[in-house]
Each structure stands twice: as C-alpha cells, then as structure tokens.
C-alpha cells in the first residue's frame, strides 16, 4: 500500500522473518495464542490476557493489531511484527516508541507460542528489532522489563547486553509483584551478522525518525 508502507517493512535474520501481519498471518497468530503461550500457573504479562478462554485469546490477538494500526502516529506508535520460522507464524515481537523524534528510545515486548519455545527464537527476534532500532531508526536506547520470576525473559536481555535499570512494583492477578527494568544503549550494542532491514525508507516518517 502506497499510503501505508509499513506492510512492506521486513526484518530478516539467519533463521527468521519479521513482518507486519496480513490477515492470513493474523489468523495463524491467533491459533498460536489459542494453543497457549505459557504454563497456566505462571503469568508473565502485566495485563493477564492469556487467562481468557482460547477463543477470546485468539480474537483479542487479532484486535490488538487493528487498534495499533488505527491509533498509529509518528509521536506514539506500537509496531508488532509477526515472527515467521520455517514458514510458520510462531509469535509476536513488538517495538514501541513515544515522542521518538525527541527521546530516541524504544521499548520492546514479545511472546511465542508454547510449542515453539526453547529454540532460541526469542533472542533472535528481539535482536532483529534492536537492529531496526539502532541501525535503521537511529535510536539511542532500547528498554524492556520482566517480572523477577520470569528468568527466561531476563536471560534474553542479559544475553543481548542489557543492563539493569531499576525495579518497579506492578499489580498482577491482584497482587503486587516486582518487575525488573532493563536498558541497552546504542554504544553497548553490537550489530549482528546476517540481519537485514527491507523496505524501511518510506516508513521513516511514520516512526518519527
């Protein structure tokens, strides 16, 4: 689409492709959400959307993308890529920016279908959006956060070079839980081999870059 060039934006890595989803991609992503994202005894998300029944998880997964597209502005955007591995949509890697033209800071979040976890996909897809942020958009910082009882997410952050950036208290399932904030600066980031950005230039004004 000439007036919405984001649909042509793609990130590629040695094993993955990240892209804004088409309708078929959203349908497959909704299947991943319905199948399950984590052990029901755990809750890695501040908003417990995965506590809903499978059909509601599927529907809300589709709706969140429509909301992000409809409210996108250069000063406040959320870019959620579907992650494709071996031809299958396996999860989502999101990158958000607010007043990016001034702050030059992005935040990330992600999830992967339960049966596709444990393959290093989470690290590789986060590295892909870091490459977009630092090499493509000229970001100065990338931030993330995870509850302190979510060691897998925090391990990905450490692996990619993030530093601890303080604690926050958040409500989760009606209880107060500590969340660890982390931060990575462009100076501490190492550009990965085999990572490429496609179709970015027409999208730059939409990112405020």
UniProtKB/TrEMBL annotation:
GO terms for molecular function: transferase activity. Its EC number is 2.-.-.-. Keywords: Transferase. Residues 16-183 form the N-acetyltransferase domain. This is GNAT family protein. It comes from Microbispora maris.
């Amino acid at each position: 689409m000439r007036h919405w060039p984001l649909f042509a934006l793609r990130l590629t890595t040695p094993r993955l492709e990240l892209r804004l989803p088409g309708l078929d991609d959203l349908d497959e992503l909704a299947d991943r959400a319905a199948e399950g994202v984590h052990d029901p005894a755990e809750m890695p998300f501040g908003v417990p959307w995965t506590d809903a029944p499978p059909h509601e998880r599927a529907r809300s997964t589709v709706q969140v993308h429509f909301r992000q597209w409809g409210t996108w502005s250069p000063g406040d955007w959320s870019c959620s890529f579907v992650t494709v591995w071996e031809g299958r949509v396996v999860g989502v890697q999101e990158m958000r920016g607010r007043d990016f033209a001034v702050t030059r800071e992005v935040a990330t979040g992600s999830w992967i279908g339960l049966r596709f976890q444990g393959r290093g996909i989470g690290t590789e897809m986060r590295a892909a959006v870091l490459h977009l942020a630092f090499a493509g958009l000229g970001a100065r910082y990338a931030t993330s956060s995870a509850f302190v009882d979510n060691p897998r997410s925090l391990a990905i952050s450490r692996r990619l070079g993030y530093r601890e950036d303080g604690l926050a208290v958040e409500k989760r399932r009606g209880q107060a839980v500590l969340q660890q904030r982390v931060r990575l600066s462009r100076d501490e980031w190492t550009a990965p081999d085999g990572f490429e950005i496609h179709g970015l230039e027409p999208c730059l004004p939409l990112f405020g870059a």
